Amino acid sequence: MIGAAAGLTSQSQAMAQPVYPDPDPDPFFATPAGIADAAPGDVIDTRSEPPLPYFPTATVTLIKFRSTNSQGRPIAATTTVLTPADHRPGAPLLSYQHIINGLGTRCSVYHGLYDYDPNLLYRAVPLLNTMLLRGWSIALPDHLGPTAAYGAARLGGQITLDGIRAAQRVPRLDLAESPAAMLGYSGGGMATAWAAALAPRYAPELRLVGAAAGGVPMNINLMARGLGLAPHPMFGLAMGAALGLEREYPDRLPISDQLNEQGKQIRASMANACTYELIALGAMQSAGALAATTSLIDDERVWQVSGENSLELFDGTPTVPVFEWHTPTDPLIPVESVDRTNRRYCQAGVRLWSELYPSPDHLATAVLGFPSAVSWLDARFRGESAPSNC
């Protein structure tokens, strides 16, 4: 993770400018005046969307709602709700947090569905169709928020919870009495796991029955040190997360003013980049190679911000049952932080079920664990007591 240099002068702090994405050209996504007067989860606007050929039985509704950023300020966020053809009032609502590794507004789930490289979403299509066939409505939140603050995991949890609130407040969706659950893997699992941990404080009124999260980066500090301090093929994701966090914490994380010329060029190229572009732009780079000074890496303020977005270091715990899965040989995330978080949850009395899969690949583990995760969620929706293997 690239950080702010220790001992920055006030002049250099004033010069630091985050790189923000191009505004979404669709006016639906604009932040309205008076948003501060709305409560978290309040619906700002809705729009019926065209049918999607890969979800042939579902109708599609886009919802804009009020959420909260990491500074406690109001923001406008969106979620896309798929409603099954045989929907009945009060049937289950699942919020599925898709992986969003990107810094551009075009990287959102909504744009992935309609107009930007839908192949990135096809891996999830069979899974989501099985849920629609069960009669579940599915919410797909754009959990990076309006500035695509990749890496801001706590923000993702808040947007996820407010997206559920909003979906349940749209009368024509008939979800007001629905039990709700959450599912996600990797970056989507991070938003899911944060939502589960934040819910008792941030959205205690929600009727949540469970959260299933796999491959979760539980400690961004450890992950950043692993990906950022030496040349790494996936360094682009670490730099993307650093730039995304700078967008969310511009006063505390003035990264942009502390890059060398090569770093600034890569930063500019990443401003609207999505997954594969981030990886390609940062392949085999490192924080030391792109920083103007080595003190960037050692600034404690950097690690404080990433620590605030590391679930292992958060003092809250879920009150809903949790299903967790990962591979013990994951090359991308620090597995020891997952194990420590699981132990802490067990000690706090969380009904936790954890499964390990013998896969050498981070993304392949998602596919291996999804069937068990969906079966576990189905049992929660049916009201069965949650098992635990603590």
TrEMBL record:
Domain of life per record: Bacteria
SUPFAM superfamilies cross-referenced by the UniProt entry: alpha/beta-Hydrolases (SSF53474)
Chain residue ranges for the region called Disordered: 1-23
Gene3D superfamilies in UniProt: 1.10.260.130, alpha/beta hydrolase
InterPro entries from the UniProt entry: AB_hydrolase_fold (IPR029058), Lipase_secreted (IPR005152)
Pfam families the UniProt entry points to: LIP
PANTHER family reported in the protein's UniProt record: LIPASE 5, PTHR34853
Name of the protein this chain belongs to: Lipase family protein
The organism of origin for this protein: Nocardia aurea
Species classification: Bacteria, Bacillati, Actinomycetota, Actinomycetes, Mycobacteriales
